[in-house]
Each structure stands twice: as C-alpha cells, then as structure tokens.
Amino acid sequence: MNFDHIDIIQSTIDGVLFGSIYALIGLGFTLIFGAMHKLNMAYAASGIAGAYTGLMSLTILGMPVLMAFIIGPVTAGLIGLLLYFACFRFMPRGNQLAPLMASIGALFFIDELIIHETSGSPMSFPAVLPDAYFFLGEFGIRGDLLMVMGFSFILMAIVMLLLYRTKLGLGTRATSQQPVAALLCGIPTHRTNGTTFVLAGVLGGFAGCLLAASVGVLSPLLVLPLTIKGLIVTVIGGLGSIRGAIIAGFAVGAAEGVFLLVRGVNERDIYVFLLLFLFLVFRPNGLFGTTINRD
Amino acid sequence: MLSVNNLVTSYGLIKALKGVSLEAKEGAVTCILGPNGAGKTTLMFTLAGILAPDSGTVSLLEHNLTGLGAPKVLRQGLALVPENRLVFADMSVHENLLAGAFTQSRAMAAQVNDDIDKMYARFPILKARHDQPAGTLSGGEQQMLALARALMSRPSILLMDEPSVGLSPLIVDEIFAIIKQLNKDGMSILLVEQNATKALQVADYFYLLDQGKVAFSGTPDQLKNDDVIKRAYLGGG
C-alpha cells in the first residue's frame, strides 16, 4: 500500500469529522455514568432505535427529511426515560450488577426488536447535503460530515449551558458528586437522574440520525459497534469526564481514520480495541478521569 | 419544637434505632451524645428524611415529617449538616451555597443573593474562597461551607452530625464558637457530638444514645453529676 503524509492528514480529517458522532455517544454515556455511577449499556441502542423511528416518520408518514432529526431524538429521549425506570430507578441500591445486567438485557431487546421489525435488512437513510464537498488546499472535506460536526458542537454547547448555567444543571452536578448531600439540599435526585437519562437519550438520538445520514444506511448491525465505540470513548476520556468524552470521541475517530488507511477496513477495529487495551493497562482512569470515590 | 416519638429504623435486618423519643426545644441547643454505633447518624438521617423509619413519628412545629423524604423535610424547615460535611467537591464554594438554596423559588433570587452575602459576612473565609472548588478547602473550611449551605435553605431547626470530627482542636473551638453565635442569633440546634467536653460548653439539654435507645437525658448539671457518663465521656471518675 502506498500513502504519504497527505493521505494520513486526509484520513485524520475524515476521522475527526466522523468522530463527532462518537463524541456525542461518549458524552451521553458519561452523563449517565456521572449521574448514577452506572453504565447504561442500552444507550447506543436507544439512539439507533430513535434514528429508526425518525426514518419511519419519513418513509411511512412522508415527512420532510429534517423531521427525522426531531422525531428521532425525541423518541430516543423517551426510550432513555423508559430505560431509566426499567433498569435503574428501582434497582436495589448497592447492587451494581443488577442495573448493568438489566441494561444489557435492554440492549438485546432493542436490537432484536429492530431486527424483527426490519427483517434484519438495512434501510437506506436519506443523505443530507449529498453533493457538498469542499477543498481546503490539498485536502477534501465532506460537506455532510462537516454538518455532522457543526451539529455536534451545537449540541455539546447546549449540554454545557444546561449543566453549568441552569438550576437543573446545578442539581444534576450536585447529585452526581454527592447524592446524599444533594437530597439534603432539597434536590429531587430521582427526578434529576431521570432528566439526565432523557437528555442523554436525546443526544443519542441525534448521534443515531447523524450516523445514519453520513453512512447513508440504518442497520441493526450498527447497534453493537456503536455501543462498543461509545464505551471505548467513555473509558479513554475518563468515566464521568465530559470534556474527556468529547476529546476522546474526536481522537478515536481520528485514530480509526488512520487505521483504516494504514491497515484497511477489516483490521481497523482491531487497532481501536488495542488502543482501549493500552489505556486500560497504562491509564485506567482515562485522559481526564478522576479517581472515583464517592460515598 | 422538634419532637421525636418512639422512632424505629432498621438497616436490612438490623434495628439501628429501637424506639427513640426526644424533644428539641425552640431556641435551644440540644445535644445527642453516644458511642460509635449507637445509632446517632441513623437518627439524623431518619429525621432528615434520607432513611424511612419502620415506625414512630417525627414532627416539627406541629407538622408531621414522618416519611416525607428529604426534599420535603427540608421545605418544612429541618436542615441537616451531615457527618463528614459532604460538600460538592468539584463545585465552587459559591455554587455549593446556591445548591443549598435549591428549594428557594426563582422569584426569590434577590433574597438568595442576600443570604449568600450574609453567609460571606458570617464566614469571611468562604468569601475569600468563593470561586475555588470546595474540594480544595481545608476540613474546617469545608465544615463552615456545609454549615452555610444548610443555612441557605432558611431552616427553623438545624441538625449537625459530629461537626468536630476530623478537625484540629483549634478549628473545633472555632466551629463551636460559630454554633454558639448561631444559637444566640435565634437558631434552634440539634447537635450530635462525641466530644462531650465541647458539647457541655454550648448545649442546654442532653440525650445519651446507646445501642439504639435513649439511655439518659438531662440538663448539663445532671450530666456532669452522673457517674457513669462522667467516666465514659468526660474523662476521669
């Protein structure tokens, strides 16, 4: 195989642009982990499920393409709330395994539901900005991926504003740091946790729609890889770290782009998993992870 | 003012409180003494609504607080400064105080800002550190922050769970001076403390909690003259 530095930079650009989807998924995982110190394994699946409902609003109801980007995230947010009640809210406190296993169950449930409803065959998702392509000197930039990135930045900015500039955000952060003290401050912690699941779900729905729009297809085969990439991003960024998840999302995207160029599509994921392995061995707290100690 | 009647609370199968009754009078400092494992923190958590009792009642100024849950108990005017302070470590001092005012409605924003200024006047060190993460504060400063955070809800009674734990003697003196001043300003206080000597300087009435039951109650003079307590808590016989 022949490639030069221009190819590598081009692959990195493509990877970073695509990585904004990983950053969104990682952000959702980390928001939920931050709130409850538990992983919601069904999270990426709920995002894909949201994207499916968005797509169905186009194919069945004949709505304009943009509606998919409203209906998808809204449904994903509702699924998030449902997952909160089904897998987290009423699980015995102190049993860490129960919500984890319940959410893995929900992951397979959603996955099977999608396979059942679509007979397992991929459905094409309308491309947004299919012909837009820009040149930046020697490098090309896909317009739709640029849109994905712009969209992601807007969503991240909204999340940051919600978390750091509103009373709801204050309550959410307080609950995440000291749930008992948050209760003592009169913060309804169950409600803030539920809200976090909805917010993360909406992000996942956007990520699912953006992924489908940039790949051009929705398939049940997207569920597991997106779950795993999301977890990798969350771990590399540092569990519970918001800026970690965002930076790791772009970084994993970039690494994936370069691995794709150097080793091809068949081996790409091997190297991404190797990256996860290296992080778990040498930097288990991730890029920005704080040592997790909470009552 | 705060009256607790025959309170029973259990952790799983273990009964931590086996029928506790006590009374905290308005404008007074009431102190609960007791060894580790006596159920003091369980009692505080039950009063504050973090734990639900199996039976018994808690009422504050004729309002029944039993089983309301922490946010509603706080709205009724009972605030707890928890053991080990539990400040929001990654949030600034200012944000910790805002979190303390979480139950105040948006319309009260001006009053909340006023209250924060009052806290800064009472605890100048918090003003100096207002934009620092609470986790970077010293133990004594965190205790003051936890106390100020609880006061932000404008409680009618303040519960404090071992405010002196893990602090140096000089800082403990300072904390007790603050408690005394707060009480002088009209705050009713229910204090859990292991340091009986310090507690005697501020408290008007004592309860001794042992193995989930009230083993003794009385005034400071009665406490000082009780042989068993003298030996166990005040050092010397």
> How many whole angstroms does the radius of gyration of chain A measure?
19 Å
What's the architecture of the domain at 77-187 in chain B in CATH terms? 3-Layer(aba) Sandwich
Percent of residues in helices of chain B comes to 25-40%
Given as residue ranges, the uncertain stretches of chain B (5+ residues, pLDDT < 50) are none
| Number of β-strand runs of chain B | 10
Overall domain count of chain A:
1
Mean pLDDT across all residues of chain B, rounded? 91
- Structural class call of chain A reads mainly alpha
Judging from the principal axes of the Cα atoms, what is the shape of chain B? Answer: globular
Overall mean pLDDT of chain A stands at: 90
Spatial order of the strands forming the largest sheet of chain A: 1-4
Question: What does the overall shape of chain A look like?
Answer: globular
What is the radius of gyration of chain B computed over CA atoms, rounded to a whole number of angstroms? Answer: 17 Å
CATH first level of chain A: which class?
A: Mainly Alpha
What does this structure look like?
The complex is a heterodimer of chains A (295) and B (237). Chain A is mainly alpha-helical and 295 residues long. Chain A is built from eleven helices and four strands. The longest helix of chain A has 32 residues, at 5-36. Chain B has 237 residues and is of the alpha/beta class. Among the domains of chain B are: 1-23 and 42-66, no CATH class; 77-187, Rossmann fold (3-Layer(aba) Sandwich), CATH 3.40.50.300. In chain B, the strands form two sheets. In chain B, strands 6-7-8-3-9-10 form a six-stranded mixed sheet, with helices on both faces. In chain B, α3 packs parallel to α6 and α7 (169-184) packs parallel to α8. Chain B starts with a strand and ends with a helix. The A-B interface holds A 167, 170-171, 173-174, 177-178, 180-188, 290, 295 and B 48-50, 70-71, 74-75, 79-80, 82, 86-91, 95, 98-100, 102-103, 106, 146, 149-150, 153.
